[in-house]
Amino acid sequence: MSDIAVKKLAEIINAPVEVLLKQLQDAGIHVNGPDAWITDSQKLTLLAHIRQGAAPVSNSGNKITIKRRSTSEVTLGAGGQRGKTVSVEVRHKKTFAAGSKLSDQSVDSSQPPVAAGARVSRTEELARQLSAERQARESAILKTEQDRRQLEAKRMEQRQAQSVEVVPEVAPEIMIEIPEKPPVVVPPVVVVEPVVSPIVDEVVVKETVVIPPPNKTPIAAKAVVNTPVTPIAQATPTVKTTPSSPDVLTAAVTTGGVEPNDNLSAKEQREVVVAAAREEAASALKRRPSKLKPKPSLAPREVADSSEPEAEKVAVVSTVVEKYTDTAPAEKTDKKPVKSKVAGRGGREELHVPAGNSNRSGKKKGGGRRDAFRPDPRQQNSNANAKHGFEKPTAPVVKEIEIPTTIVVSDLAQKLAIRATDIIKAMMKMGMMMTINQAIDQDTAILVTEELGHKATPMQEMDDAALLAAMIGQNVNGYEAKPRPPVVTIMGHVDHGKTSLLDYIRKTRVAAGEAGGITQHIGAYHVDTDHGTVTFLDTPGHAAFTKMRARGAQVTDIIILIVAADDGVMPQTKEAIKHAKAAGVPMVVAINKIDKLGADPDKVLGELSQNEVNTEAWGGDVPVVQISAKTGQGIDALLETLLLVAEVQELTAPVDAPATGNVIEASIEKGRGAVATVLVRNGTLRRGDLLLCGAEYGRVRAMFDEAGRPVKEAGPSIPVAVLGLSAAPEAGDEVIVMTDERKAREIAELRREKQRDTRFAAQHVSKSEDFFTQVKASERAQVNILIKADVQGSVEALRTELLNLSTDEVEVRVVTAGVGGISASDVDLASASRATIIAFNVRTDATARKTAADNGVNIRYYSIIYEVIDDIKSVMSGLLSPEVREVFVGLAEVREVFRSSELGQVAGCLVVDGAMRRSLPIRVLRDNVVIFNGELESLRRHRDDVKEVHMGTECGIAVKDYNDVRKGDNIECYERVEVARKI
Ligand SMILES: Nc1nc2c(ncn2[C@@H]2O[C@H](COP(=O)(O)OP(=O)(O)OP(=O)(O)O)[C@@H](O)[C@H]2O)c(=O)[nH]1
């Protein structure tokens, strides 16, 4: 029993406060008012006063009802940790009958009745009952606390027992599910309402737990609760489960009533319980074998499906459930399939990871311990079906690769699936120093590959020629071949009249417009004559154009070998003969300039015969026509002969087929891009066709004939200028119309790659040349040149000619060469490589001019190749060291030899030639053999030192450091002169 306020006591005994205050005053108890507190002894005094005949306190007159309520807190500790605080409220209600009988509503009816008339006995009875109440309350509290402790201990045992067995079945699924599910709430409010005990009217044990939101849809918790609270009397708890708000799971277990603790506000109570829950969670976390492993006791519970990832959630739920639930192992088994299904949804099964691997990674899912001790049949099955498992090779993997002509080290490493450094190391062992980006040749690559334990075979590279033949065959096959015009190439020595002949035939005057009067690049002309259509290729006669002539021979049907009647067979004539024979092309000899006075056609025929050209005139099969390109004499006969030869050849080609042909010339023109002169060999080339030209490709954007007129199509043997290619192809490249752009691109790229590889390989070879050769080369002076020309043919010619100028002392280096005008980047390159730019029939744009002026780059403009060569020769000459020559000055004959004390030996001489000069070197000759090289010590005439003594004059000569001059010797005086050299 405890102190109580007056007004509270009045409320309990159901009497007005004023009456009670008066009775207290009557009983001698002084209180200050309704709020004053009275002690137990004062209550007893009051009772004694009443017993002595005071009026009853009840206003009803015949009974008194006393209600008491007390609240206390019980802290439930666990393992030395701070325990939870549980509020316990005890309520009392007593009714005393005013008459002969005392009525106690809540007291057991079996208690003996008290005589109504005996005040003393009633008072004593009241006192006794109050005392019993106190004891009962204390024992109830004690009992509650003992029960809690017992329950806690029991729960600990259960947890320890379950932690070993339950973990593997449940934990993995929980760990998988957690991060992927949206937060959902499992919000049961569990209320346990025991029946009120007769003596302890109401015992309220309230526990409020705030749980973070779980991540699953709400699941009705079917917690089977065996009440842990056993009050004095038997209590039968019931459980209510109520979903709460989405973010809070509140589990309140109320025993004996639902009223909150009056002493604490709702917020305070919640805070207390949350704190307790957190403590519990922390302690639970520490008890678990791994922080990442969820509590095994979650397994059998449906609440566990919420799969809280955090220890706090797990601990709280387990606290709630374990405290009041005897976890049934059977339930764990029942839940397993459900969880497994959920896990599958969770995504782990969607990963392409073998079950075995998944099993291994199950460590973080809490399954590690189970894995360690016993196999999981499910996982065993999964392992059997595993498809993606990696198995470490147990033996060295021997690869079989194909090696192309050249291969870069990094590419080889990739093919062998090893590190490039391993290849470099292997090559170092073989005595080769390589870097990752260097290209190595096929043989070396095969050696290295075999050294590394792999197998290598030379790659059967796609034969470009075979591929082309196949493609051309594809284009042509199935189309009817029709007669086509002959392609005629005119070849001959310089100035023998090639262009003049063509000029006459075309009735134009092309030759007059050519720079320097010579043809510098190939021209293709399609000419309709009275005798039929003929396509002429006009090739330059200069030696520099050998390559172009070679190409001309390959694309032509007939060669006209033009020989000037007044000049005869010359070097380029012989070269043309070789090309014609090599290409197997029939020749027609045109002996030109027969109008000239010195013309001697018979001499020409003889010379041709000497060069294995068997002319018809000399009994052979090569037709010969005597012409004059100037007067037109014999031209018709020549054309007739040409067509006759063509007829014999039966030249035919399919007309309707997709076109194939050759690039005769290519250039880059401002505003037009790449322009290629294409001679169609088969089929018809049309605008819009997809062309593959060597390493370039593109659609025909526009076509022009030789007169610059746009044309829509070009048939066999017709030359056209084509626009639309990606870049200027190489002169002589095969041209083929394709339908598959992707394939065209692929082939073009492959060819470019090949060109690049060849270039790299060439560079590597040049780098790997003998060290001494390199040193020697570096000692040579260099003339660096950057060539830009209007057409590819001129570029080639210039490059070849200039490179051929190199000598042992001066080397000509072509930094780069290309077609098109001179750009700023050309100037930059020339500046960086200290090169002189040779601009051949091209000009410089304003920016490039300014850049050149700023950087001091020398740009020289030419339109005649001879001038280029002469200029470069003079530049090279300037770099040559001057030649030192000896120039004879005079000769003196020794007539007598004297001895002088001052000078030693002195030779008395007569100057027989030139003059003797004191400052110049001399040689002493005996029988015309040089016996001494030196200089004069003195040159005297009549005892006087003189600088010079001329022929016919006597003089005395003392030779420095030489005393063996004899009578009859000759002394020669000479001078060293430096003479500039020329290339
Ligand atoms: N008298 C005479 N002169 C000729 C004849 N043919 C050419 N010429 C002259 O010879 C010179 C060279 O003629 P081209 O036609 O330019 O000789 P080319 O062989 O084409 O010379 P390149 O283009 O340098 O290879 C010119 O001045 C012509 O006028 C001819 O039949 N008679």
Describe the structure.
- Pfam families: EF-G_D2 (PF22042), GTP_EFTU (PF00009), IF-2 (PF11987), IF2_assoc (PF08364), IF2_N (PF04760).
- The longest helix has 59 residues.
- About 24% of the residues have low confidence.
- The chain contains 26 helices and 43 strands.
- Helices cover 35% and strands 26% of the residues.
- With 983 residues, it is α+β, with helices and mostly antiparallel strands.
- The strands form twelve sheets. It has an eight-stranded antiparallel β-sheet.
- The site of guanosine-5'-triphosphate has 21 residues, from helix 15.
In a few lines, what is going on in this structure?
By secondary structure, the protein is of the alpha+beta class. Residues 54-61, 99-120, 164-262, 289-386 and 765-772 have low confidence and may be disordered.
